[in-house]
Amino acid sequence: MLPRHSVQDVARGQKRCKRAAARVHQVLFLYATHICMVWRIMRPAGLRLGVYLTVPRHQATLRSFILTMDPASPSPTERPLSFQDLILTLHQFWSRQGCAILQPYDQEIGAGTLSPHTTLRALGSTPWKAAYVQPCRRPSDGRYGQNPNRLQHYYQYQVLLKPTPEESQKLLLDSYRAIGIDPDKHDIRFVEDDWENPTIGAWGLGWEVWCDGMEVTQFTYFQQVGGIPVVLPSTELTYGLERLAMYVQGVENVYDLDYNGAGLTYGDVFLRAEQDYSRHNFELADTDLLFRHFADAEKESAALAEAGVAQPAYDQCLKASHLFNLLDARGVISVSERASYIGRVRTLAKLCCETWLAGEDK
Length: 362
Known about the structure:
The protein is an alpha+beta fold. The protein folds into 3 domains: 31-73, no CATH class; 83-282, 2-Layer Sandwich (BirA Bifunctional Protein, domain 2), CATH 3.30.930.10; 287-360, Methane Monooxygenase Hydroxylase, Chain G, domain 1 (Up-down Bundle), CATH 1.20.58. The protein is built from 11 helices and 9 strands. Strands 1, 2, 3, 4, 5, 6, 7, 8 and 9 form a 9-stranded mixed β-sheet that branches. Helix 1 crosses helix 3 (59-69), helix 9 packs antiparallel against helix 10 (310-329) and helix 9 (287-306) packs parallel to helix 11. The longest helix has 39 residues, at 7-45.
């Protein structure tokens, strides 16, 4: 027969088990602490922390320190990057790769590629490494703030690496790791999709980069800009910031994005503007005025290019491009006229690019 035990005996046994478990936990924690600290601190810095490790009153501090220092042990309260922290993290990453972190270009443009920081700098033989956020406007894509992932105004993160580095794809994957997307744990695919922008006469060999079935980046090796072949190969990376942030945060509606980590949402900042500009783009923009402004910008761009000032000429080219996009959104340009307008803007872009190269050769 099994011996009978009193309630007191059982209670004493439970206490002894708890004390033993606590001692085991303490020993395991100290060993884990020691290993982590040796790896993270003592090895690269040559510090001696053995005595500190054995002091019980420091264990809570050490535990907190380990959670902070070791990315494999995230804090339970850690949250995905907010929209603005995502941008700051990309800035920091590309700055470490030697890129100049530039400010957004102050014109209404439809893509980060159209900034002179990319379009003009991709030409010629002068090396150039830059990264920047670019607000983009595509009037026809407005949906009055009612579509969860389609906007007439949005942000791209643009990187131009000239000349092309040997491991440009690895750099892109490393940038994903920096913002919390581990390529080893997600299905990252480079889907062949050669890029083209007929408005500025540019094209390149490239890929859409998909993460778990959703496109998050365009990866391009430029071949031609302004109808002019590039002489120094360059790599362009274009991140769709809203789409990337939605993926990182696990959000299905762009207006629900955590903007700053302090309770402000993307919708708080941009929803009203999206509603108002959709009305402007589709209903209110004065088309007669837009036609006149287009003609003025076209004339001014050509004159400035003839005078040899590439960037002011290109500014007017960008104005003409945006005015055309507004006219297109208003529905006042036929299919045949559309091709003609694109050709007129492309002619301006080519003039500006030729003027830029002529200035570089001086």
